[in-house]
Write a structure and sequence with these properties.
Layout: H1 2-25, H2 48-61, H3 63-67, H4 90-93, E1 110-112, E2 117-119, H5 121-130, H6 143-155, H7 178-188, H8 190-193, E3 200-201, E4 211-213, H9 231-241, H10 255-266, H11 301-306, H12 310-323
Antiparallel strand pairs: 1-2, 3-4
The chain binds heme C (2 copies).
Length: about 325
């Protein structure tokens, strides 16, 4: 088994090497498609690791079926909505700047400002389960958790540089405008996600088939404590990935449209996460675009929700400096 595995990894390594060489030849930017150099799951043998990694991928793609609120076994209902991880972590976590999960593992454990504590990869996965999936945490030693971690570990094998997150496009100097966003939504999004934004189910309620087009708000969407509910995260995701088929390198919307549409999306009703006022226990570390208080900077909830964000950052920097006795943080 060990021999078979290292053989597979060698094939992966040489495929990666030749892709890299081709990219260099074409004088592409160095980060181009690094995340697509993720190892190929089809080359994994059908042994216990191979099965665990495949189960992890299935959990990312068919979350609603395996651990969703309509899943057959009531014990395994961890997610509270019918989304899948893949609805946001596109191409099962392999799309560059589609909230890629490639290369993520080596970052954990790490300090998380939202929790004010060191977070493991299991904690981070459970953050998405309790916020993006509006559900309850998976036990850290469950077979589902182990499988998701195994899949993320597999995706991270041999990857040095990956195009994580959704990028960081230029920010507006004005507040993003949900009214303008509503107009652009009709033109660019409604055909798939519905004029009401509630998406389109694959089957009928109760059959645990998830969505063909996931909801963007409403009772079956991510909750108000989720990353996708914050403007900067949402606008960058939308710009780099929507309408479906757009990429970071070939976006379909203008930057302004993406900010305004995201503003429209984050202004809509969605489930409430209990205790979100306990997020960010260290006030000056609160993400500038957290749409919920309390805030230590004295700026309005509306500015936190819609921007502009640079004045908030400046204010927080000043607060940090005054706390450390006039010195910049080391
Ligand atoms: C509604 C959208 C959404 C869904 C659904 C979702 N996530 Fe996430 N996830 C996010 C966002 C946004 C981030 C933050 C990305 C960042 O920090 O750049 C994130 C971050 C993560 C991270 C950390 C990535 C990093 O770069 O450190 C992991 C791991 C993760 N999610 C796993 C999952 C798993 C597993 C599921 C399914 C159980 C899931 N997510 C479902 C939106 C989502
Ligand atoms: C051609 C159809 C299509 C169009 C048009 C489209 N989307 Fe999507 N969108 C999808 C699909 C499909 C997914 C889920 C991807 C997956 O599961 O692989 C998705 C996922 C999303 C998600 C993450 C999952 C969730 O439910 O929150 C957001 C946010 C989103 N789209 C916003 C938008 C916005 C805003 C627009 C308009 C600018 C838009 N989409 C246009 C098809 C579309």
């Amino acid at each position: 088994m060990v021999a078979a595995l290292s053989c597979v990894e060698l094939i992966d390594a040489s495929a990666r090497a030749s892709e890299k060489a081709m990219a260099a030849e074409r004088a592409e930017t160095p980060t181009r498609d690094a995340a697509r150099i993720a190892p190929d799951i089809d080359r994994l043998p059908d042994d216990s690791r191979g099965r665990e990694v495949r189960m992890g991928r299935a959990l990312i793609i068919e979350t609603y079926k395996l651990i969703g609120p309509e899943s057959r076994d009531p014990q395994s209902r961890f997610a509270g909505n019918n989304l899948s991880c893949q609805n946001c972590h596109l191409e099962a976590g392999a799309k560059p700047h589609g909230l890629s999960l490639v290369g993520v593992l080596s970052d954990y454990p790490r300090y998380a400002a939202r929790e004010g504590a060191i977070e493991t990869i299991q904690d981070r996965i459970n953050d998405c389960l309790t916020r993006s999936l509006d559900g309850r945490p998976l036990p850290v030693d469950s077979k589902e958790m182990n499988a998701i971690v195994a899949y993320i570990a597999f995706l991270s094998t041999g990857v040095e540089k990956a195009r994580r997150g959704a990028g960081q496009m230029a920010e507006l100097t004005r507040p993003a405008d949900p009214k303008e966003g509503a107009k652009a939504f009709v033109e660019n999004c409604a055909a798939c996600h519905g004029a009401d934004g509630l998406g389109k189910r694959r089957g009928v309620v109760g059959d645990a088939e998830g969505y063909e087009f996931p909801p963007l708000w409403g009772s079956d969407s991510f909750n108000d404590g989720a990353g996708m509910g914050r403007l900067i995260a949402a606008a960058n995701f939308i710009h780099a990935n929507m309408p479906f088929g757009a990429t970071y390198d070939h976006p379909a919307l203008t930057i302004e449209q993406a900010w305004d549409i995201a503003a429209y999306m984050v202004s809509m009703d969605r489930p409430h996460k209990v205790d979100i006022d306990k997020d960010f226990p260290v006030g000056v570390e609160k993400f500038v675009d957290a749409g919920y208080g309390p805030y230590v900077d004295g700026l309005s909830p509306s500015q936190h929700k819609f921007g502009p964000f640079q004045p908030i950052r400046d204010k927080l920097e000043a607060l940090k400096r005054s706390k450390s006795g006039g010195q910049a943080n080391p």
